[in-house]
# Entry
Amino acid sequence: MTGGADSSFPSSLAEPRERLWRALHACDETRAVAVVRGALGADISTAEQMRAAGERVLLDLIAPVQIRLGAAWAANDITVAQEHAGTAISERCVAAVVDSTSSALPGTSAGRVVVACVDGEWHALPARLVSEVLRLRGWRVDYLGAHVPTEHLVAHARYIRAQAVLLSSSVEVLLPAAHNAISSCQGAGFPVIAGGPAFGPQGRYARLMRAEWAGDAPGAAALLAGNPRRPGAPAVRPPEADLPHLGDEEYTMVLQARRQLVKQALADVQESFPETRWYNRYQNERTAEDINHIVTYLATALYVDSSDLFTRFLTWAAGILAARGVPPRCLLPALDSLAGQLKDFPRTFGILHTSRGVLES
Ligand code: B12
# Structure
């Protein structure tokens, strides 16, 4: 989508992207909002051009700069505080687009939908971006924000007689919660469109859970325009109905044994790295937290039966550690401890065995 030849809408957003990045990096909200307003174009004449410009600024300017912010944190180039400040500024930038384009919104609504983050999900900005693009495309959107308890999501969808529920999730460990939300909404008769990085490459986990999936807001708009079918014979499904491998109970058993698994792995790590015996309480708590994180991802990989998910997590964790000068191999004793403790669980052992290689290279 472009603003058309007669407008001052920039043909490439490369330069505004760089300027917005520098403003976020400097925690300079005023400058960031000025960049966004400038990129919307000064002499756009039609409502359609304004809507197109708004969408492009949301998706091709604010979103990629926000992703760059995450990459900079992962690479240890910016602090957690800078990342938080940058996100707050991005939210303000989205609000600036909303203000500037509100007069151009279509007069009639294409229908009413709910956009919400899965229970436990704090990444609200992606869902906000999706909501604003859908509004620009004529949908009436009830945006419920972060961390929406499933029963309240369903109740709201019922209350407004939503045409569809759009669910956003960024972190894979919330896939069991996402599954519950999907099957509860479908069980109440609402079509569900899932999106966000948690649902895996090309939305493979959304499809496992029998939800529609879109990679971005325009994709969701296309699905909505096709009038997604209401789920037939509404009834809440037990998780095994979509994921028959759960019948082996390995997921449930790993979750139930989590405390003991972490405790033993921590002891084994201390055995492998004698220097960790002199860790203070804070350092010990962080190590336990890291191991707990590994077990949570392992359980999630079991839930969707995907060793890829666990491999991606270890690759991500290795990158985070390496950027902070910690050799990724230091995770191996924890993995080996878990493999030893879980050797009688074939799926779990297989996932640990397959994924271990990414830490050895
Ligand atoms: C900002 C941020 C936060 C903020 C969120 C605040 C907010 N208001 O949103 C806070 C501080 C809360 C946070 C917390 C955490 N975060 Co964080 N966060 C980010 C960051 C930097 C940006 C997220 C974002 O806005 N992305 C920009 C949008 C535009 O991109 P997007 O998500 O891909 O969304 C687009 C599409 O996917 C799609 N889409 C998204 N949702 C939907 C829904 C539908 C229906 C459709 C159709 C499409 C769609 O459209 C969007 C727009 O184009 C990312 C880095 C990154 N690369 O994204 C990390 C990131 C997602 N976070 C991460 C982590 C680890 C965490 C924490 C676990 C950290 C911790 N130890 O506590 C917690 C988890 C909290 C939780 N339970 O949710 C990791 C996840 C890694 C992983 N493998 O799971 C990332 C990738 C950081 C990194 N580089 O390592 N985070």
Q: What stands out?
A: The chain is about 60% helix and 5% strand. Confidence is low (pLDDT under 50) at residues 1-7. The radius of gyration is 23 Å. The chain has three domains: 1-104, 107-241, 247-360.
